């Protein structure tokens, strides 16, 4: 199974390497969409980090101390 995945990935990479140019047009809105994706990804990552940081604090310091530090 592992060899089939490697062969398939290699086949896709070689196929992509030897295709002709697409001559595609990217309009100005493309940059805006890419920027929104980047900002959204960063914001989502920060929220995930905050959730796990809070869980880690609760596990390490206990519920009372972690909740007390939020009040300050």
Your description of this structure?
It is built from 3 helices and no strands. The chain is mainly alpha-helical and 72 residues long. It has a domain at 29-72. The longest helix is centred in the middle third of the chain and has 33 residues, at 29-61.
Q: Quick one: biggest sheet?
A: none
The succession of helices and strands, N to C, reads HHH
How many strand units? 0
Strand percentage lies at under 5%
Helix content: over 70%
Structural class: mainly alpha
* Gap between N and C termini: 55 Å
Overall shape: flat
Oligomer: single chain
DSSP helical segment count: 3
What are the low-pLDDT stretches, counting only 5+ consecutive residues below 50? none
Whole-angstrom Rg: 23 Å
Average residue pLDDT: 82
């Amino acid at each position: 199974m592992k060899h089939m995945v490697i062969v398939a990935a290699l086949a896709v990479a070689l196929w992509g390497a030897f295709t002709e140019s697409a001559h595609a047009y990217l309009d100005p809105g493309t940059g805006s969409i890419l920027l929104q994706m980047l900002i959204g990804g960063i914001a989502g990552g920060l929220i995930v980090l905050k959730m796990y940081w809070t869980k880690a604090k609760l596990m390490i310091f206990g519920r009372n101390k972690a909740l007390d530090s939020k009040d300050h």
